[in-house]
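Quick one, tokens below:
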């Protein structure tokens, strides 16, 4: 029996993970956050004091890096060299480092291999930047979520406020813009909408509206009874 893959790509802060989590729950399948994997590799490099932009420093580290994904009570956990780093990878400095390390093709190939293996084993809603274009070009359904920079920055700012961090809105906006440019302009598997992806602009829409829009395109996907 095959598995079902739903790909959700788009820039940072477009709502991918929020939407993907809910859709996965509705479909009763797992959610895979691929950004967490880039973040974990970046965290290791930062902890070792390496420069995430320098392939000569990063590539030798990869063969000594053990990354695995586990699900505990429906939550994805990322283990880096045997340690659960799920919370540590959320810090802003890790976001920037992840975007830098994600430029290196060797890093991408190591993580893409794990992503493809997981997608073969499990039905997934999988979010990232290159899922529909590179990781799973034959995904059952592809979505590209976007929103204006202003709205994405506002969401990130609110998220940080909720977590008790007092951050500067303009700084968040600058960081997002920089990361999007970096993710879109890299040579290997950049952030790009797949031709056959359904484009959803989430600006001004509630989470529920976006979930409904996504799900309206999924009728029939699970009916394929491929699981
Ligand atoms: O989705 P996120 O913000 O957690 O991702 C962090 C960084 O990882 C993002 O700026 C670019 C990189 N990334 C990537 O290059 N490809 C993916 N499939 C997912 C993330």
């Amino acid at each position: 029996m095959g598995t079902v893959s739903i790909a959700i790509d788009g820039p940072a802060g477009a709502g991918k993970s929020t939407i993907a989590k809910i859709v996965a729950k509705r479909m009763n399948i797992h959610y895979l956050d691929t950004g967490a994997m880039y973040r974990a590799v970046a965290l290791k490099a930062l902890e070792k004091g390496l420069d995430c932009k320098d392939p000569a420093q990063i590539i030798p580290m990869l063969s000594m890096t053990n990354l695995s994904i586990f699900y505990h009570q429906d939550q994805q956990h990322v283990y880096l060299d045997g340690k659960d780093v799920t919370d540590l990878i959320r810090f802003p400095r890790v976001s920037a480092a992840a975007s830098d390390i994600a430029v290196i093709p060797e890093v991408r190939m190591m993580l893409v291999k794990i992503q493809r293996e997981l997608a073969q084993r499990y039905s997934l809603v999988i979010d990232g930047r290159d899922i529909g274009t590179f990781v799973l070009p034959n995904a059952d359904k592809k979505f590209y979520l976007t929103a204006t920079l202003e709205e994405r920055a506002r969401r990130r700012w609110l998220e940080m406020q909720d977590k008790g961090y007092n951050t500067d809105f303009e700084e968040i906006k600058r960081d997002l813009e920089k990361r999007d440019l970096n993710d879109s302009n890299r040579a290997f598997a950049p952030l790009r909408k797949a031709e056959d992806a359904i484009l959803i602009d989430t600006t001004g829409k509630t989470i529920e509206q976006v979930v409904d829009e996504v799900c309206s395109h999924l009728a029939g996907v699970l009916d394929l009874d491929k699981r």
